[in-house]
Amino acid sequence: MATQSRAQTDASRARSSKSRARKKQRPSTFNVWNLRTRGFLHGLAPSVSDRLKRETLGIVLVLVGVLSSWALGRGSEDGGVVSWWAETLTTGLGKGAVLFPMFVGLTAVRAFANQAGPILLFRHYFGGFLFGAATVGLLSFGGADMSGSIGMVVGDIARGALGRLASGLVLFGAGIVSVFLLADTDLLSLERDVRRLWPRRKPKAVAV
Question: Dihedral angle at the C-alpha atoms of 42, 45, 47, 50, nearest 10 degrees?
């Protein structure tokens, strides 16, 4: 009897463990709906080439850059949305708002370029952020109208930590470093490129 009861207990445990294993193998309702939704969306939007994705993004960036430039120039005359966008840029960045369409335009150029890999690298993100922060931070020395609210925050942090003179020098140096990051160059390469562009002097003929 003891052997029979032990065998029945082992069999029931085996059945329960098998049932638990089957339950674990079954996908959850969320995963099932997630897979079905992905399949449905994939059917609606067939796969496109990376080149077409880059060109589509480039067109969108060009439109955003043109709209931003137009908004900064005549934003108050062309409807509520354009006026709101112009006010947002000028309130946040002040005179440095012109940097936004410039960055967007440069990103669009890289999107249209015939090159492999991602459109923007880490140095572009960090360099663009550093250049923008340095520019509006330096403009904050002229007041909120010059730098906007973002520039005043950057300037206040820099001046509070380093003082007025040192913060200006640090922001100026950060702007120079950001240019090298965006251009993917260094001082030695820059000096070499400048020498190549510099006109070469022809040796003077020695008079006999």
Answer: -130
